[in-house]
Amino acid sequence: MASSYWSNSPAKSFRFFKIVLTDIDSHSKLMIPRKFVKIFGKNMDNRIHLSAPSGSVWSVDLEKQKDEVWMQNGWPEFAKFYSISFGYLLVFEYKGDAKFEVLIFDPIAVEIDYP
Q1: What gap in Å lies between CA 52 and CA 114, rounded to an integer?
Q2: Assuming Cys at both sites, which of 15, 25, 70, 77 could form a disulfide with 29, CB separation 3.0 to 4.6 Å?
């Protein structure tokens, strides 16, 4: 049963969340959970695409080190555009083909008004 839940089927989605625990600057990176990388990493090359409900799409480069994958170039710009900072909660929904929809919640747990 567990294997069908984690399938790569387009009918199913896979989500993970991250809580921002540091300030974000131009050199900031965000790690993709190892379990996600283990399951879906083969579908991601060196770049992913993030979109928010506003419809904007951001290209983000990946940095791979052993079994860790980090969002790098493009991530600080995405964070700055949406004013993401310490205490924000981000929910990433994998849409396949290295595409993610991102929901953004502020430190008081309310989804932001997307610009």
Answers
A1: 8
A2: 70
Number of CB atoms found within 10 A of residue 93's CB: 15
Among the listed residues 75, 81, 3, 71, the one whose alpha carbon sits nearest the alpha carbon of residue 37: 71
Question: Under a CB-based contact definition with an 8 Å cutoff, are residues 21 and 86 in contact?
Answer: yes
Percent of the chain with pLDDT over 90: 75
- Of 60, 65, 10, 19, which Cα lies nearest the Cα of 40? 10
The model's pTM is 0.86
At 108, which helix (H) or strand (E)? none
49 — phi, psi (to 5°)?
A: -125, 125
